[in-house]
Amino acid sequence: AIWVPDILKKFDVDAIRYYLSINMPENKDTNWMWDDFVAKNNDELVGAYGNFVHRVVTFTQKNFGEIPKLGKLNTSDKEAIKKIEETSKEVSDALEKCHFKKGLRAAMNLAQFGNQYFNQNEPWKLVKEDEERCKTVLHVSLKIINALSVFIASYLPFSSDKIWKLLGNKDSIHEGKWEFAFNNLNVGYKLERPQPLFTKLSLQDFMVEADPFSKFDLRVAKILDVKDHPQADKLYMMQIDIGALGKRVLVAGMKPYYSIEEIKGKK
């Protein structure tokens, strides 16, 4: 069995919450699989969501130092805004019906969409060729991140609050409303270089195969005396000497197999 209080001492709280939520069967117990936990943490939480947030904010901070203004929207930008609206409905509907796994999956799909939007628009080229267009792409990408922080706040409260404040919001995200996902960004807010939200895990780092006999304390004792058990036909009462640990009396089910003479004085 896996006890949540125990693993909370070893891993990031949001990573644990993510795995429990994304694996939640919602009508029965769930199994905790260490290899699956590592895979979902690395591929989804770190690779999809965390990577999207980190690369967008890092690129924006490095090239502009602040949240850029929104320019003229093209078709891909409008699709991104529409995707935020669609995800809002999907997640809120799922939460209202207590379909928590479905709601989290919908939010993660938005993170994957954000990565695709960022890649397709290639801001690393636009920053050299069309700065205004680059600013718009980054602004829309940050709007996706802003929305994600709201949609995922009930699942990943700590990282969501970090993202929320990273974008210039002073109060905690948990004091806000669902509609804040569509708030206008704080254009001109000076961005700080972000730290990775989540940590990549390696199964080998914490799944060390232990010797199953390593905790045994085996001792050789000398049998000093053997008597029949007064209340059992198949048992002996044996006095043994364990050396530094002294003498002990124990009960052994050896009577059907050995006579007193065969074992007395033996080790």
Automatic annotation (TrEMBL):
Alphabetical list of InterPro entries matching this protein: Anticodon_Met (IPR041872), Met-tRNA_ligase_1 (IPR023458), Methionyl/Leucyl_tRNA_Synth (IPR015413), NA-bd_OB-fold (IPR012340), Rossmann-like_a/b/a_fold (IPR014729), tRNA-bd_dom (IPR002547), tRNAsynth_Ia_anticodon-bd (IPR009080)
* Catalytic activity annotation: tRNA(Met) + L-methionine + ATP = L-methionyl-tRNA(Met) + AMP + diphosphate
Coiled coil ranges (UniProt) are none
What keywords appear on the UniProt entry?
Aminoacyl-tRNA synthetase, ATP-binding, Ligase, Nucleotide-binding, Protein biosynthesis, RNA-binding, tRNA-binding
BP GO annotations: methionyl-tRNA aminoacylation
Q: Name one GO cellular component term.
A: cytosol
Query: Would the keyword Nucleotidyltransferase turn up in this protein's UniProt record?
Result: no
Q: GO MF annotations for this entry?
A: ATP binding; methionine-tRNA ligase activity; tRNA binding
Looking up CDD domains in the UniProt record yields: Anticodon_Ia_Met
One Pfam family, short name: Anticodon_3
Keyword Protease carried by entry: no
TRNA-binding domain: which residues?
212-267
Can you say what this protein is called? Methionyl-tRNA synthetase
